[in-house]
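Many introductory courses stop at the sequence. We go one step further.
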Amino acid sequence: MEIQTLHERFLSCEGVCTDTRKITKNCLFFALKGENFDGNTFTQQALEQGAKFVVIDDSSYEKDDNTILVNDVLSALQKLAMFHRDYLGIPIIALTGSNGKTTTKELIHTVLSKRYRTIATVGNLNNHIGVPLTLLSMTKNTEMGVVEMGANHQGEIAFLCKLAKPDFGYITNFGKAHLEGFGGTEGVIKGKSEMYNYLQDYGKQIFINNSDPIQVEKSRNANTILFADSELENQLKIHFLDASPFVHLEFQNQHISSHLIGSYNFNNIAAAIAIGNFFKVPTDSIKEAIESYIPTNNRSQIITRGSTEIILDAYNANPSSMTVALVHFSKQKHAKKIVILGDMFELGPEAKIEHQAIVDLVEKLDIQQALFLGENFNKAKCNNPQTIFYDSFQAFREDFNTESLNSALVLIKGSRGMALERVMELLD
């Protein structure tokens, strides 16, 4: 089927779906394949549950006009998203980076929504399937789009940029994330910079944190919009005030008090301010947006359980984000600071070194007790009697004593696969 015809069918539907557990009435269902399933086999079920059309690539499941046969379902989804992006013709802001991209995306969305009808990536649907779904969630009523792009290997960001065709871009930072897939830190920089390359090749604009030397270097010949916490000319000035524990900053003589902890979140907030300012969102509205944003989904959430105050930052972790979180945490004024840390994944040959480095860092910081969970941390060495290692969450659970956290300030952080939000279940 021609993409234009598929797009006409799409416009007659009410949304897109790829999971029969989330079917909505009159949706367009894409029968994607996975490692352990073939979406074609769910064709009849999707129709019975209310899908208006089902896109398939196996002719044996073709039934009537409600089934749309294509050569490859995933390719059809991606091509439809590209066609729809051109059909809409709205400004698209692309976002990637090693750390903080989802928080930054949410902040940008919150700020831009003060003036424009804005659609942004939901959650972290930021891959070769999530980006098309984000684009297809936009309608003729949408005025701005914010598309988060994730990657764990070379070429992925370049491909996602071809799908979304962004007009603007921002890279939060270049950290030690997905080292295994990217082939080390230099590979991360090269892979993330694919966004800069795309925007530069097509004469688009890039937002640059002028205090990040890597961002500055990698965008040297690009069309840039600069911001930083400095008095240099030709850039937007956003001043960091403090982070005790929440980030406070100043912009155009306005004091802004956020609900985000850690000085490392200043750059995420500053990016949202810079982007909002560029798109002429009034300063008062920017302030209101930043101050109204409260993190959720296990990202730097502040939770109180009795006498225990918890910083739940268990959505994900890598050596870079773990380091800044620990340094900030150690500076908090509290007599009893405890960290519960889980393994960092996708580090490849660097895993042993990076986990030991975190253990060594904790030993040097003003932290009273450390509990490390996971196979990688369990291989590390430490002579501190207040440092305890567990090879699994189950081993931690069996040894856990709620009273040990009484009257403590606790940081919980680990990679997504560790699911350390489960610690909260032990406190309920």
